[in-house]
Automatic annotation (TrEMBL):
This is ABC transporter permease subunit. Its main location: membrane. Gene3D superfamilies: MetI-like. CDD domains: TM_PBP2. One of its GO terms (molecular function) is transmembrane transporter activity. The keyword Transferase does not apply. Residues 230-418 form the ABC transmembrane type-1 domain. Pfam families: BPD_transp_1. One of its GO terms (cellular component) is ATP-binding cassette (ABC) transporter complex. The lineage of its organism: Bacteria, Pseudomonadati, Pseudomonadota, Alphaproteobacteria, Hyphomicrobiales. It is found in: Cell inner membrane; Cell membrane. One of its GO terms (biological process) is amino acid transport. The keyword Glycoprotein does not apply.
Amino acid sequence: MSTAVDMPRFVRAQQVEALPPPSLTRGPIAWVRENLFSGPFNTLLTLVVFYLLYISVPPLLNFLFIDAVWSGADRAACRADMGGSETGACWAFVREKLSYFTYGSYTVSERWRVDVFFALLALGVGWLLWLKAPRRDLGAVYFFWLFPVVSYILLTGGNADFSGRFWIGFLIFGALLIALFAFIAALLKTSLRPALIIGGGIVAVIGITLVLMDMDFGLEHVPTSLWGGILVTLLVATVGIVVSLPFGILLALGRRSKLPVVRMASVIFIEFVRGVPLITVLIMANTMLPLFLPGDITVDRLLRPLIGTALFSSAYMAEVVRGGLQAMPKGQYEGAMSLGLNYPQMMILIILPQALRIVIPGIVNTFIGLFKDTSLVAIVGIFDVVKTIEASRIDPNWAAPTIGMTGYAFAALFYFIFCFGMSRYSLGVERRLAAGQKR
């Protein structure tokens, strides 16, 4: 029989000092090994990318910054035969023409109105996009109604001078719109009173807007033929983005409608617009739209590409939204109907919020594509920021080898800032909306 042997015990009174993790498993060295040199193929790709960066980035930095010309009054600063330098970008040209790139040929004494427009646009966008902003409902009213009216008055000078024939046509349009809402309410078997209130409210808002546009505020009239540069680019992009999303939602719902007329009309519009390039739409809007109107009615030359761009983007937005609607499980529809919600309530309160959240990347991608496609309005004679650069680089006072490349580098930077900003904001919204699903 064995007996247990009492072993001595040792208890440490002080805690052992923590040691840093091994450098091969944590830290930058481990990250490099895991992400850049984790295997033969990954190592080869890393070396190829490093080589491409080596042969492209230094010359680009030399051209844009190190060898660039930052000051000068004319082409002499950017021409070697006149004592200047022609190996780098001629930023003196951009500084000299920056006013034209921003305002186009807008009247010099009235350019403060464009500056106010930029400030109001920044206020509206910031109010809506800042998720913690107070009273975002008022921000929506400001951005979608007050801001467009004030911008029209500021940029054009107001005093639209509508004729009596126009007001008679508006009254007929208002009556037809109210009747349309009543007809839709009858088809959906809902109460008639809310439909009349909504239709009448829309007609009243449009009427107040037209009255404000017709008033004389004492501002000098500036025709749209003088607008150009960044002003036109931001204006076309803003109108296209604001109009395309609601119209795209309506087209997506119309394509899924059980009413044959509504469904076929939506399908024909979407497929026709998506089947032709934007250039064709702009040319048709510029040349064909006036042919469908009476001889004494003309459409402003800037309004034509605005309409064409908005309708073109709406067709693509409709397909993005339709993808979100198809991704919704059938149980969401059944749950909404079990609560006694009618079709508009079900779509507004249950289905659309979830569907739009699913397709946020597609929506933002469409917005980014629309923003870049604004440069195509130059084809119909609208001087956007790219067109103003092309017009400026043929100025004989700035005839230098690097003028064209410098101008397009400025345009690339302008588009990159806005497109990258939209992309990063969409990522933040996605993370915020997906936070509840990760818990």
